[in-house]
């Protein structure tokens, strides 16, 4: 019995050492990927390229309701965290381990901006770590409003539309400032899964997602129940 206990203890420490070694290797690979991204293009150059693109829409030209909807459904602790959300990461890690997948990454709005500016959409652990390093860099260089502005101007809305300006023009034939409350909350829900919630291919699913977005806004205090009821349909 004593021998078995010693063996199990040694196996535990060996497993722990292997996990730490693997984690260290991934961290090194992620940091190297982060540095290579910045060597290829500085953060300042990447930001300038996005902001000078046709259709780039400053945050003061976007409806406050739309911005609140985006934060509520994508990253409700956006104003509190410094680039990553440990709670969301742990929850996503538990899901991914349980399902043996990378379905959920626990990415914040800042991390998604980092990915859109510098990395591919391919799901891999090293890239996720590189994304974290870049998120910290973004939080140090930009305000929260600037990061949110970058996010809504770089995300994909399905049907070939990148950024809030193109999505508004393509889906509704209008400028972002002209969005109705229903349209604003509808668009806030699409980037989570653009092919699933495409207004062209799956308008019914998009409408269901809109209701979820409104529910999240009520949950996090962005809307009252009465206000939510008023925008529950087109």
Give a concise summary.
This protein is an all-alpha fold and 234 residues long. The protein has helices at residues 2-40, 43-51, 64-74, 86-99, 109-118, 125-141, 144-154, 164-172, 181-189, 203-219, 225-230.
Give a written overview of the molecule.
- The chain has 234 residues and is mainly α.
- 65% of the residues lie in helices and 0% in strands.
- It contains eleven helices and no strands.
- It has helices at 2-40, 43-51, 64-74, 86-99, 109-118, 125-141, 144-154, 164-172, 181-189, 203-219, 225-230.
- Helix 1 crosses helix 6 (125-141), helix 5 (109-118) packs across helix 6 and helix 5 (109-118) packs across helix 7.
Averaged pLDDT: 86
- In helices, the fraction of residues equals 55-70%
User: So what's the overall shape?
Assistant: globular
Helix-strand pattern, N to C? HHHHHHHHHHH
- Give the beta-strand count: 0
Strand content: under 5%
Counting DSSP H or I runs of 4 or more residues, the number of helices is 11
* Low-confidence segments: none
Structural class: mainly alpha
Straight-line N-to-C gap: 70 Å
Sheet with most strands: none
What does the radius of gyration come to?
A: 21 Å
InterPro entries: Glyco_trans_51, Glycosyltr_51/Transpeptidase, Lysozyme-like_dom_sf, PBP_transglycosylase
Domain Glycosyl transferase family: 55-217
Pfam families: Transgly
Protein name: Penicillin-binding protein 1A
